[in-house]
Amino acid sequence: MAWNVFLALLAYDFAYLCVQAKNKILKVCYGFLWLIFYPNTFYVLTDAKHFVDWLNPAKVEALSDNRTIVDFNVLIFGIIFGVVLGIWSIQLMLEAYLKHWSLKVLVVSLISFLSSIGIYVGRSEALRLNSWDLVLHPLKTLFLILKSINGQNLGFFASFTLCQIALITLIYLAPQLSVKRAEKKA
After folding, report:
1. Burial code of 48-77, b = ≥16 C-beta within 10 A, e = fewer?
2. Which of 9, 45, 101, 131 has the fewest CB atoms within 10 Å around its CB?
3. Residues 41-83: pLDDT tens digits?
4. Which domain covers residue 103, as residue numbers?
5. Which residues of 3-30 are buried (b: 16+ CB within 10 A; e: fewer)?
6. Does a structural domain hold residue 14?
7. Taking the model in full, what pTM does it have?
């Protein structure tokens, strides 16, 4: 979990550096690094699969065990923190580079879909790719990513895309739209 949260933090850091950079080449480099590390922010949601271990009827008594309580809280904190970092990072990018809310919605949808592909290639037992693979072995990694985009995986892509859009909308876009409506009425 610590590694996953670190990778999510890198995405936020690259978004921050992209927005703060004055040099256009640095902006592009940081923006690219943000894009390839961004899927790590929502990837932490897949760690929820570990909750199944605690729901096993044979292990119900273990739910009161101190070690289990600590593990559970670390897992919950990591998931929440990773997702919040993702939303903060996309918020930084959207606020810095896009002014129209309709364009923001389109970009959030596209980024969420691309991120879902990244989450799949990171979680898939057959692939287990990491963002670093795209930096260290770009062509091989890109080929494997493109190969994974098929009808069999569309359900995964769609569900994670919708999950990301829903969370980003609830936490970032919905309050923005409410403010815009209030400003129009005033």
Report:
1. eeeeeeeeeeeeeeeeeeeeeeebbeebee
2. 101
3. 999 998 887 777 666 666 656 666 777 778 888 889 999 999 9
4. 2-180
5. ebbebbbbbbbbbbbbbeeeeeeebeeb
6. yes
7. 0.85
